[in-house]
Design a protein that fits this description.
Chain lengths: ~260, ~425
């Protein structure tokens, strides 16, 4: 069994409009892949469709997590199978503390009848909070309620650290972060890199890739991956802009 | 021999059991019994019963004064009455029979604190009982059921806290029903004199979770000048039961009264709460948390009357509804002409976790004074899909996610309880509704 997240010929519709068209991508564990692309090209759709959001209709294709098709699974089952989504706009949940929220998520990963050990849980939680420079007082605060943009993103990374997913999809985690917050978040993600985990970094800008250096960069355009390369591709994109891709793609058509 | 609850035989047998009680008590019983039979059953055109399932209010098939499961069951119930370990005293009743009386400390007793089962209080403290027992007006629709309570009630707790005495630990009363079709009439009477401070917790439950019982409880709180009274109740009657809980609170000058009712039990459970602000500067908090599941109906009628000014009453009723459950909230704030500079608030919030659940709200104001701050509001909302998706995306199963959202919805009240042991008890009662 291959330890990879394999997206095969995936097509996705939202309200009758096809957004992803026959998309292919393979993310092996141990690697960080970046997906770049202009707005409206389907990057966030890919993230939401993978997580199982009910508004996104899969019209064809497969997504194999270590060989198992997750498209048959419910949202919560996919997460327990090892898929994590760091959201661009995480929800606020009034009255539910971060500690209780993460505890419930960890508890859900235990076998029937097993109980989470509270001391160990808090020890792990505080460790990860310190790493992400989140004040320990936050444990009793309601999830994302009244958080700044940067605090919300750090909270996403905290959850990722606590849930130890096999594959993490990070949807524009860099958006809305100032440079200090970006550095803290990137440090956190770098510490979570490792042979047991694949990370898919979705971003509009090259900036975050200065901090989280990807193994591969993919360019997405109009619902497909149109170009893949090494980390230098991101720099090239930054220099030449997305119009460069557009020209490159339309050129052969113009010639014909 | 089992007689119908409302039959003459039931009352005669009860009176026979009361033959050693004082004459005034027996007279009061007879008057109440007659009044019960004179008063009409609620009618569907009665405004106080709007939206309620009138057909469900049927006293047929219930029996009183039986102890079908004997002493073994009572022992089990006593063992299950350990919800609050740190307490100043406790009373446990099963089918209105006293099972256990844990007295207050010698120190409190020397200070004049009285903590007795109702019948003993009737014998020993005639003046207090004649003044306070069933002395408050019932205005919210259950006059008939209140009269039956007056006629048949013997079980309950009587708490008297003299001037200036402060009791740190809560007093606890547990009322159980035992066996099918039994009827109980639990009573709670708290009298806190000037500057006294006290907390009382009532636990109401059926021995069997799906039992069919009839319950009509009355709790009256008298909060003297400058006193602080906290009353908490947890209602977990069997899920085929018909239950009434009728409360009246009198708050005198500068008194501060908090009441919290947590409701999860019954097939049809009606609460009536009347808060009377009788002195300047008094403050009453009326809170209620309900988890309605299956086809339960919770019917909540409230009245906040302000007779004096510079006073506050603040009501917050929160209902979480699942399955095909129904709730009715009907509240009225009444500010008399003299009660200037009154702040009175009334909020009913309903969280609908199922598309077939139904929350009805009838908020109301009647204000005769001209310098007041009053507000009322009712909101009903479905569970937020984005919140649910976010929790699912973390691997939390839907049932657990809903449970967390309900706790989140209730946390502004539960999180503020000073007594952590009581708060934890209430949380586990709520949690059990999701099993």
């Amino acid at each position: 069994m291959k330890q990879q997240l394999e997206i095969k010929n995936l097509s996705v519709k939202v309200e009758e409009t096809e957004i992803l068209k026959d998309l292919n991508l393979t993310l092996p564990r141990g690697e960080v892949h970046a997906i770049m692309g202009p707005n409206g090209t389907g990057k966030s759709t890919l993230a939401k469709a993978l997580s199982g959001h009910p508004d996104y209709e899969i019209t064809s294709g497969e997504v194999l997590l270590d060989g198992e098709n997750i498209l048959e699974m419910e949202v919560d089952e996919r997460a327990r199978a090892g898929l994590f989504m760091a959201f661009q706009y995480p929800s606020e949940i009034p009255g539910v503390s971060i500690a209780n929220f993460i505890r419930a998520a960890r508890q859900a990963r235990l076998k029937e009848g097993e109980e989470l050990e509270a001391t160990q849980f808090y020890k792990a939680l505080y460790e990860k909070m310190d790493m992400l420079q989140i004040d320990r007082k936050f444990t009793s605060r309601a999830v994302n309620e009244g958080f700044s943009g940067g605090e919300k993103k750090r909270n996403e990374i905290l959850q990722m650290a606590m849930l130890e997913p096999k594959y993490a999809i990070m949807d524009e985690t860099d958006s809305g972060l100032d440079i200090d917050a970006l550095r803290i978040v990137s440090d956190g993600v770098n510490k979570l890199r490792g042979p047991e985990r694949g990370i898919l970094l979705i971003t509009h800008y090259q900036r975050i890739l200065d901090y989280i250096v990807p193994d591969h960069v993919h360019v997405m355009w109009n619902g497909r991956i149109v170009k893949s390369g090494g980390k230098e591709l991101a720099l090239e994109l930054e220099k030449k802009g997305y119009d460069w891709i557009k020209e490159e793609l339309t050129e052969p058509a113009a010639r014909a | 021999m089992k007689h119908e609850l409302t039959s003459r035989e039931t009352f005669d047998a009860y009176l026979a059991s009361q033959k050693d009680m004082p004459r005034w008590w027996l007279d009061l019983k007879r008057e109440s019994w007659d009044r019960f039979h004179d008063l009409p059953m609620p009618h569907r055109k009665d405004e106080n019963w709007r939206f309620a399932n009138i057909n469900g209010v049927d006293l047929g098939g219930f029996h009183f004064g039986q102890n079908p499961e004997g002493e073994a069951a009572e022992k089990d119930l006593l063992e299950r009455s350990e919800q609050v370990h740190q307490r100043a005293g406790r009373l446990v009743f099963a089918n209105d029979r006293l099972v256990h009386h844990e007295a207050v400390s010698q120190k409190l007793s020397d200070q004049g604190v009285i903590w007795l089962p109702l019948e003993q209080a009737v014998r020993k403290h005639e003046d207090l009982l004649r003044k306070h027992f069933m002395a408050q007006p019932i205005k919210l629709g259950s006059e008939k059921f209140s009269a039956l309570h007056g006629a048949l009630c013997s079980a309950g707790s009587f708490l008297y806290v003299p001037r200036g005495v402060e009791i740190d630990l809560p007093l606890v009363a547990c009322h159980w029903t035992n066996g099918p079709n039994s009827a109980v009439f639990p009573h709670t009477l708290v009298i806190a004199e000037d500057l006294a401070r006290v907390t009382l917790v009532d636990f109401f439950a059926s021995h069997q979770r799906h039992a069919r019982n009839y319950v009509c409880g009355v709790n009256d709180l008298y909060a003297g000048p400058g006193s602080r009274v906290t009353y908490i109740s947890a209602q977990n009657w069997g899920h085929d039961s018909l239950a009434f809980h009728l409360n009246s609170t009198q708050a005198f000058r500068e008194a501060y009264v908090t009441s919290l009712n947590v409701n999860v039990g019954g097939r049809q459970a009606r609460t009536e709460s009347h808060s009377q602000v009788l002195g300047e500067g008094a403050h009453t908090e009326m809170q209620s948390l309900t988890v309605a599941t299956g086809s339960q109906e919770f019917d909540q009628r409230t009245l906040q009357t302000h007779f004096k000014g510079h006073s506050v009453s603040d009501l917050l009723y929160k209902n979480a509804l699942l399955d095909d459950a129904r709730t009715i909230f009907s509240g009225l704030i009444k500010v008399e002409e003299e009660a200037q500079q009154t702040d009175a608030y009334q909020t009913n919030r309903n969280l609908l976790l199922s598309p077939t659940a139904e929350a009805n709200a009838l908020p109301g104001l009647e204000i005769l004074a001209n310098d007041v701050k009053c507000s009322h509001g009712a909101t009903s909302g479905q569970i937020d899909d984005a919140q649910l998706y976010y929790m699912l995306a973390r691997g939390i199963p839907e049932s657990v996610a809903k449970q967390l959202l309900v706790f989140g919805f209730f946390e502004d009240i539960l999180g503020k309880l000073e007594n952590e042991e009581i708060a934890e008890n209430l949380r586990s009662l709520i949690r059990a509704q999701f099993d």
